[in-house]
């Protein structure tokens, strides 16, 4: 479940709840970051190893999926100061010893 806190209204609401969908786009939601355009990027803890963008318009767009990293999770999505590079990691990358991981960089622009 992903919650949104509206600081002006001092109110919380649900942005995404995988329990309410028959076929959820994300399972095991974990890490969250926000783009300069206001898109909320959510990374999975397991699941399909995706990062999905939730646009202010309500549109949901899968951005990235890591393949071949069974037993891992997507961690730490973050943008560089210019907002043109998205960084994220797989805790246990494919072909890497169990204590290792791998970090990725994807260039944008990032907006939905």
- Strand arrangement across the biggest beta sheet: 3-4-5-6
Quaternary state of the chains? single chain
Number of strands: 9
- Indicate how many domains the architecture comprises: 1
What keywords describe this structure?
single chain; 112 residues; mainly beta; 4-stranded antiparallel β-sheet; 3-stranded antiparallel β-sheet
What does this protein look like?
With 112 residues, the protein is mostly beta strands. The protein has one domain (2-107). 0% of the residues lie in helices and 46% in strands. The strands form 3 sheets. It has a 4-stranded antiparallel beta sheet, with no helix packed on it. A 3-stranded antiparallel beta sheet has the order 7-8-9, with no helix packed on it. The protein has a two-stranded antiparallel sheet with strand order 1-2. Strand 4 and strand 5 form a beta hairpin. The chain is globular. The mean pLDDT is 85.
């Amino acid at each position: 479940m992903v919650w949104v806190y509206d600081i002006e209204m001092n109110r919380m609401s649900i942005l995404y709840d995988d329990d309410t969908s028959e076929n959820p786009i994300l399972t095991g939601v974990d890490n969250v970051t926000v783009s300069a355009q206001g898109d909320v990027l959510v990374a999975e803890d397991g699941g399909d190893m995706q990062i999905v963008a939730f646009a202010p318009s309500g549109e949901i767009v899968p951005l990235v999926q890591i393949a071949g990293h069974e037993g891992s999770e997507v961690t730490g999505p973050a943008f560089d100061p210019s907002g043109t590079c998205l960084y994220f990691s797989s805790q246990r990358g494919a072909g890497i010893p169990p204590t290792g991981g791998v970090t990725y960089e994807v260039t944008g622009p990032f907006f939905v």
